[in-house]
Amino acid sequence: MIKLKYLIILLSGFLIQQPLSAADADDSTALVTAFWRADSAEDRGQARERLIQAAPDVATLYRWLQSGPDYPADIEVGQQESVRLSEDGIRFPYVYIVPESYDPDKSYAVEFMLHGGVSRPEWESGGGWWRRGYDAFKELDRITVVPASWTGAFWWEDNQADNLAGILRELKQSYNIDDNRAYLAGVSDGGTGAYFFAFKQPSDWAVFLPYIGHPGVLRNSQSGPGHQLYFENLKNKPLYIVNGEDDPLYPVSSVQPFIDILKDMEVHHVFTAIENGGHNTRWMGDETPKLEQFKLDNPRDPLPETLYWVADRTNRYNRNAWLRIDELDIEGRPGMLQVTRDGNAIDVASDRVNAFTLLLNPEEINFAEPVQVNVNGIPLFNEIVVQNANTLLDWTEQNFDRETLFTAELKLRIAE
């Protein structure tokens, strides 16, 4: 007989707080801004301590962080070129375009556009890799980001998974970005890259827009690491897919079996087949009104009531929004969770998963009442969960996402 046991890791205990003076405490925006825009780990650590000291409780700290920082008015607008350095020293150049009319008191959508032709040498700084046709982005009332990809840093490599998340995080520290209107589009290899993030790392994004790409490339070990694709992972995010009928690389006929699976799985998507279309974006002008309406109609739901996730590793690609898979029966073999939240009651359907984490938000969970978790119909957990300021700040620092602030981590284990 199988018995379910739980392991919960809550917090290291309440901090005995010594509030700052009333004048300092009232300046919560300045404290949040110092934390949000800190240039170093040391500065951010000091800003964390000041926030914890100033906030009388976790609920207050949550409200401060949700309100966000004071964004600077004297910041660069127009076309900018920057470089993000990875932890192992790889340079990732990118161009970003900020509307000339940028107003720091207004939140802006952000759209990443992933280019094609990734099998080429590393891009050099100085704008030489900036592609013709992207000047149209300057007219849009959003922040547009064009990162760089090359041999050794394909869009579907681990380093780019870290890079795009890192660029988005850096921009959110400086610009007032609408967390629920981050769009990921791509052309050709970039379209294939958009599929990769939809399958493997969707939490940051509202919609995915793969243009003239093909998800089958992601499975090919000769074109990168070779990824297993799990269609359950597409059920929480909409896709707008465009391919040409006569595309010599990825014609509609080669993509149609994938589209048929999306239909069978009831994945929210739009598929446009361009009549007589080749491997190009000449159709873009005619399709743009529908693309823009699709984006407007599909803002991100940051904390959906139902989540699906399949993972075959636990060191990355194991999280979807407020759900994370921490341990599989066998590493490398896929495990699946389906999680549904109804107030404080959370039902989990688990297959080949030994341990997982639920990230809890105070607008979704009543922390004055027990949280109840059932796994495969069997009660696993039924206790009061305590919120923690350090948990809240840890997740804020990881994402700088005002819509996904978590005040508690519920770490659960399923064991015989």
Q: What would you note in describing this structure?
A:
It is a single chain. Helices cover 25% and strands 26% of the residues. The chain has 416 residues and is α/β, with parallel strands linked by helices. The chain has three domains: 22-67, no CATH class; 78-297, 3-Layer(aba) Sandwich (Rossmann fold); 306-413, no CATH class. A hairpin with a 5-residue loop joins strand 1 and strand 2 (91-98).
Largest sheet composition: 8 strands, mixed
Please give the domain count.
3
Q: Which whole number gives the mean pLDDT?
A: 91
Based on secondary structure, the structural category is alpha/beta
CATH third-level topology of the largest domain = Rossmann fold
CATH homologous superfamily heading of the largest domain: Alpha/Beta hydrolase fold, catalytic domain
What is the helix fraction of residues, given as a range?
Answer: 25-40%
- Our Rg estimate from Cα atoms comes to 22 Å
The end-to-end distance, rounded to whole angstroms, is 8 Å
What is the spatial order of strands in the main beta sheet?
A: 1-2-4-3-5-6-7-8
CATH architecture tag of the largest domain: 3-Layer(aba) Sandwich
Q: What is the CATH first-level class name of the largest domain? A: Alpha Beta
Low-confidence stretches: 1-25
Order of helices and strands: HHHHEEEEHEHEEHEHEEEEEEEEHE
Strand content: 25-35%
Shape: globular
Count every helix, treating DSSP H or I runs of 4 or more residues as helices: 9
- Number of beta strands: 17
